[in-house]
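Appendix B. One record, verbatim.
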Amino acid sequence: MIPIVTPAEMAAIDAASPEPVDVLIDRAGAALAWHARTMLGGTYGRRVVIVAGPGNNGADGRVAGARLARWGARVHFIDAADVPEVLPDADLVIDAAFGTGLSRPYTAPFTDAPVLAVDIVSGVSGDTGELLGSPRSAVATVTFQALKPGLVLGAGADLAGHVTVVDLGLDVSRARAHLVEASDVISWLPGRAIDSHKWKAACWIIAGSESMTGAAELTASAAARAGSGYVRLSVPGMRGVGPIETVEHPLPQKGWGGSLDGIERFGCLVIGPGLGRSPWAAACVREVVGACPIPMVIDGDGLNAVAGRLDALAGCSYPPVLTPHDGEFETLTGSRPGPDRIAAARSLALDSGAVVLLKGPTTVVADPGGAVLVSTSGDARLATAGSGDVLSGVIGAFVAQGLDPFRAAAAGAWVHGRAAEIAPRHGMVASDLLVTLPEVLGATHLG
């Protein structure tokens, strides 16, 4: 996992370092110069423009520029306080104008040259990724010791280009947020023991309704594809719904909240996708979640059922996983997440005592203790009906296999996003994810 720290946290880490500031700046500048040299394909005769501000970012840029000049580059420094509207012609522009602590608008000068940003693109909030003025996108960004939220959230994630994290020898062991990588997912997901059987990863799904049977089918199929050996599917008031691999367990349309006999045999319960918003469905969901003895994923209409009644989750034996998109987050909390999505997910996790997976271009997973895992896999192809049902099924399967809910949610988000990345680029629908999931879960694709 790659640590993610806020600008304020990074400032405290810098201040606690036993190394003098000038030593850290020299290390940062050296790393920046080597990265620039790689991008240029050499240095002799290359033209490099460095826009340098008054802070440490500017100092990093000046150290890098001095090295590049010694290596034969023609370096032109421009003070960020007196930057022209158009930069001189160059083979590379190093954006060292302002770093993650910028609090006022900044308008970046025009250039046709590729841009290498120092720590973060100037004109982007380090805390949220929001635009502060009119920044110019970078081909690459070199950041130091840890990612900053503005590199993975909002517009900042798109403007940063390829991000490289350089180790300066600082202690970031107390970071409370981390970016999930493929290697993490590989290490978390358990293999099947030689004596394994279907009940060792059993998942019960209560989902679907007359007008939304597809939600039940997608959730159940995803759970089976993601490793649940036994998937029980209940669609209240209906029969004959679901893929052939699932075991149907009929429930009445109303009053089923107290009739989940044998639930203790299952490793996870997924409840809510496509259940509908009828008063009786909501009442049953609340009855179930208020006394559920096993780990649980609550999605879709299940979230609507507990909105305004998060105290109902206090009876859960394990922290449930809540999977809201922005609209469902507003239903649960009364307001949209806002630009600081890490803080928003943390707040709901603390208030609810649940693991919160906040969906979006960047998925943020928070546990009640404040730890956060972030996944940036996936793309706009996931903005299609039913993809959230697939995600719930994947998380349910991971929990059923023994992952703790926090890591299961983060691993599910990463695998779900990766499945979209290898799906058809055009015309992808949610059921396509069921085809690519096994590929992602194969060792070759994860590694």
